[in-house]
Design a protein that fits this description.
This protein has about 575 residues and is an alpha/beta fold. It is built from nine helices and 20 strands.
Length: about 575
């Protein structure tokens, strides 16, 4: 089974922003665009997106069987302890989902995932590409001579069909990771199987030639141990077949240091287009600017000098580490590459939920990720973002690349179409977030109050007031409403709890948001109490309880927090 590139590629720290490039090179990059070695085609002047298409589920008909790429053990359903993913897809537009062993979503619905083997999934993805200006899909193809080969072959047909019907282009992108016999088997696979797809009107062409990419030559890691000579032979063989050949190369390809083996410069210069890898290299805006000055500017100059097209990798950021900055990271990367004058852009990736750098539609809030798992939704930093947000940024970035939108460092794409950034009133900011309490009785843990299940509840130690329960929203957010609930079952008779609501930015110094008072929970009205107050910027929301007429303990089944 192919593995994530992250397992081989480690981060390379950025140094001084002016360490490796002269001032004249920087000035030149600001004042003139690079001249393309090739005219506009299906990759030059276009937005290409890496497309894995590698998810399958039991019952979808895929030859490989099991939960391919959803689970570490693909013969067991994905769960928090058996998973390969760090992000969760927005499932609303898939006609079929497959139920996992994850906990229910924050909204109580079963945790389901899609299968790439369903044609409707591929169709949905290519429709999104059409709607958001993704011109060309680079279909990833790992060693097809193992057990995944038949499934990869079928996926190529599904992608071809979708590309033809939705007016997109596609090309084969070979990843040589752990492919020890790639020198001969690449040629066999291309001549006997993949080259047939070039007959499709949807197959990408550049300068009249079918496009093929080989990703992984020269990387300094055990998964790609190849020497320069066989790599150069493969590149020249594809060119002899009449192909336009892209090289997915290390970040430091030009210098032969860090992630690049030395002695590969002749291999790199043999490619028609160079596309250096960037995932895992930085997660900050300053880091992107460092790479622009020290890596991308001299990369572009080297490509210009050798008649090679330059297709830098642009990434939305790893959602699981909080790198996205609600779209600012992605836009800065777009801006830097467009002002550089690159010949095309490669987005990493379209559907890479494994590494958290997908642009495909993603769960918006904790209500649509499995409760209690810590999987970050798009609003992880407190800014509500629609599921299609990173697709919409891609569309605007593509327009900027093509000169249809003026070059600007200011992100023009709002997180939601109908409004600006900020938590939305209908989003429960506490759903699935970490909860703690002054005490708990037996198994009635504080996490029960943020799991979206009104039937489970937190209960404090008995006969020991005062007590409190609090939720960590993960960041300082504007909160103006709290909803408290008890289980709706008839057995929970009317009771009054004397409580206050407090807020804190740091978890230690709390201010009162709602003064202490008796709050009546009545089954006739859903056993719920809503408390509103002037908006306050808080990270921690605490409910402080001093009395309960129904039971000698603090009790809550749900602690919900909302913007005003």
């Amino acid at each position: 089974m192919a593995v994530s590139r992250r397992s081989f590629v480690t981060s390379v720290a950025a140094g001084s922003a002016l360490a490796a490039v002269s001032a004249s090179e920087i000035v030149s990059a600001f004042t003139s665009a690079a001249s393309a070695a090739s005219p506009p085609g299906d990759v030059v002047g276009k937005i290409s997106v890496g497309y894995q298409g590698w998810f399958s589920c039991p019952g979808d008909g895929a030859p490989i069987g099991g939960w391919w790429h959803w689970s570490r053990d693909r013969f067991q359903p994905p769960s928090p302890s058996n998973t390969t993913i760090v992000s969760w897809p927005d499932m609303r537009e898939y006609t079929h989902g497959y139920t996992t062993a994850y906990p229910n979503l924050g909204n109580g619905q079963p945790a389901q995932l899609f299968s790439s083997y369903d044609q409707q999934t591929v169709d949905t993805h290519f429709r999104w590409m059409r709607e958001h200006g993704c011109d060309t899909a680079a279909l990833q193809r790992f060693n097809p001579f193992g057990d995944e080969g038949p499934t990869r072959d079928a996926m190529a047909l599904k992608v071809r069909d979708a590309a033809e019907r939705f007016g997109r282009k596609f090309y084969i992108m070979y990843d040589v990771t752990s492919w020890t016999s790639m020198r001969s088997e690449l040629k066999v696979d291309w001549t006997t199987k993949m080259s047939a797809h070039t007959a499709s009107p949807a197959y990408a062409r550049q300068s009249g030639k079918p496009v093929v990419c080989v990703w992984g030559f020269g990387f300094n890691d055990p998964g790609r141990p190849f020497a320069p000579a066989p790599c150069l032979e493969v590149v020249n063989w594809f060119k002899a077949q009449g192909c336009y050949v892209i090289g997915g190369v290390p970040t430091y390809w030009r210098q032969g240091i860090n992630d690049s083996r030395p002695g590969f410069l002749d291999v790199y210069h043999a490619f028609d287009m160079i596309s250096p890898w960037m995932v895992g290299r930085t997660g900050t805006l300053d880091g992107l600017d460092w790479f622009y000055a020290n890596v991308n500017v001299p990369d572009q100059a080297d490509c210009d000098a050798h008649g090679i097209d330059y297709q830098p990798c642009v990434m939305p950021g790893d959602l699981s580490t909080g790198a996205r900055a609600h779209g600012d990271f992605y836009w800065r990367h777009f801006y830097n590459m467009v002002r550089l004058g690159c010949q095309g852009i490669y987005i990493s990736m379209f559907d890479e939920y494994n590494e958290g750098n997908q642009i495909a539609k993603t769960a918006e809030t904790a209500a649509t990720v499995p409760a209690g798992t810590g999987i970050r939704p798009l609003d992880e930093d407190g800014t509500f973002c629609s599921a299609d947000y990173y697709l919409r940024i891609t569309a605007d970035g593509g327009r900027m690349l093509k000169g249809q939108l003026a070059l600007t460092p200011v992100r023009p794409t709002p997180p939601v179409v109908a409004g600006g950034p900020g938590p939305q009133p209908g989003v429960n900011l506490a759903a699935g977030k970490p909860a703690t309490a002054s005490s708990q009785n037996s198994g009635f843990a504080p996490a029960n109050a943020v799991d979206g299940n009104a039937g489970s509840y937190w209960e404090s130690a008995n006969n020991a007031f005062p007590q409190w329960i609090q939720v960590d929203l993960g960041a300082a957010l504007s909160v103006g409403r709290v909803v408290l609930k008890l289980p709706p079952a008839a057995a929970w008779a009317t009771r009054t709890q004397t409580l206050s609501v407090q807020g804190s930015a740091n978890g230690s110094a709390f201010t009162t948001l709602v003064a202490s008072g008796g709050r009546t929970f009545n089954p006739a009205t859903g056993n719920a109490v809503t408390l509103t107050f002037p908006s306050a910027s808080v990270r921690y929301v605490r409910v402080h309880i001093t009395a309960n007429t129904g039971w000698p303990a603090g009790q809550l089944s749900e602690l919900e927090a909302y913007a005003s």
